[in-house]
Amino acid sequence: IFGITRAQFWQVFGVGFVGYGISIGFQFVGTKLSTAANGSLVTSATPAFVLLFAALMLGEKITPRRLLALTVASLGVLAVIYPRSSGVDPRTAQLSPYLFWGNLSLVAAALTWALYSVLVRKVTRDIDVLSVSLITFAGGLPVSLPLGAWEAATQGYGPIGWGVVAGVLFLGIISTALAMYLWNTAFATLDASAASLTFFAQPVVGTILGAFFLGDKITPLFILGGVLIGIGLLISSRE
């Protein structure tokens, strides 16, 4: 199948189990139990974890330039995210059990997604990206299908109209299938530590889309953050 051996198939299937089964599962749980600001902040640690996993598993060097790029881009992410959470006073905020487990799930999501990304870099050395993408999607099904069925049975769902169908199709085809194929392509083409910095574009794009569709404001701090993220990517690309 896919012109690969049975052992290679199950290896890639296991990579998908880590990424689409475990990591995205933690991401959904963490997002539900924690806050949007925490979700953006905690998962933005993914490139740092990629840097470590790439050094341990792929032998990529942690160079001063890569550390500088990661630091500059991280500062940019903080500048973008800060306005979303600035209305919360940490001195008066209470850490509920749900928030604690939500934050813990987000940390697990960041760690496991970094592991998935580095493993993709490893398996695409011998297998084409399209085959890897298709098999990794299948690897997530043993987790997502039973949990999805359980959630539907216990919590139910509202009326399903054309808007819901269109939203699900967009999430499945564009935001998941196409986006993950491009993500896998980036890790197959670039060093893992360099490709991971594109992760920092998410809060920038999210804020721009929020301004366009929801009327969110674009602040000077956001512009500064976007510039810093761009500088971080530029520093990394010059290595």
Write a concise keyword list for the protein shown above.
239 residues; mainly alpha; 10 helices; globular
Explain the overall architecture.
This protein has 239 residues and is mostly helical. The chain has one domain (6-237). Helix content is 79%, strand content 0%. The protein has ten helices and no strands. The protein has helices at 6-33, 36-43, 46-57, 64-85, 97-123, 129-155, 162-189, 192-195, 201-214, 220-237. α4 runs antiparallel to α10 (220-237). 34% of the residues are buried. Residues 89-94 have low confidence and may be disordered.
Query: Which residue ranges are poorly predicted, with pLDDT under 50 across at least 5 consecutive positions?
Result: 89-94
Spell out the helices and strands N to C. HHHHHHHHHH
Mean of residue pLDDT? 83
As for the number of domains, it is 1
% residues in beta strands: under 5%
Measured as a percent range, the helix fraction is over 70%
What distance separates the N and C termini?
38 Å
Helical segment count: 10
Query: Helices and strands: which structural class?
Result: mainly alpha
Rounded to the nearest angstrom, the radius of gyration is 19 Å
Number of strands: 0
* Main beta-sheet strand count, sense and barrel state: none
Shape annotation = globular
